[in-house]
Putative N-acetylmannosamine-6-phosphate 2-epimerase
Amino acid sequence: MINPLGRLEGGLIVSCQAYPGEPLFDPDVMRRMAEAAVAGGAVGIRAKGLDDIRLIRAAVDVPVIGLVKVGSEGVYITPTVDHAVAVAAAGAGIVAIDGTRRPRPDGLDLAEVIATIHDRTDALVMADVGDLEDGLASAAAGADLISSTLAGYTGARPRSEGPDVDLVRDLASAVEVPVLAEGRIRTAEQAGACLQAGAHAVVVGTAITYPTSITRWFVDALHEEI
Ligand SMILES: CC(=O)N[C@H](C=O)[C@@H](O)[C@H](O)[C@H](O)COP(=O)(O)O
């Protein structure tokens, strides 16, 4: 497998995710969303769920960062090795896993998890972290790249309104592996600030692919005007 990290450098990765019960919750809709993002210049796609990953992998020629979500509390992003192996088998060249120091459902530590994924697949492992200590521990455990995905969602750091640029900067200067900026990037200016802070690439989801939230931002702003 060609190492995808070079293809991501300096670029925009678009996260295409929908949830059960929502109008866009359909792998084929996410496949179309991914194609639309790539047509606009996305250098990578982040996708959730094995069916979505399969369809998107077949439809676009950019690296796919895959994950599954199991629940929404604690360690819910690709929580076990078996989940990670399934994500890689579905076609993700990069598997995103929870990279926090919280106890994992399979009782393994992060180094064991990453080593086993490397043994059983060709995929790179991306650690989704919530603070600097998570990032340092993930790098020491063998993660191939680190993302600020969980900043503001684990209790370790406050939930900033925009991206946690300070964490991105601290991670980028503290670890050797590439650091992605992810989480609450709402504008192109914020994405640029993350690259300036040392991010290898930026991941944007909600602001591009989640029309319910985008609509609500407009609606709320209109109400504040009154
Ligand atoms: C915290 C968590 O579970 N984040 C998830 C990770 O896959 C997604 O829900 C986010 O949409 C993604 O990280 C992109 O972030 P944003 O949608 O803010 O641009």
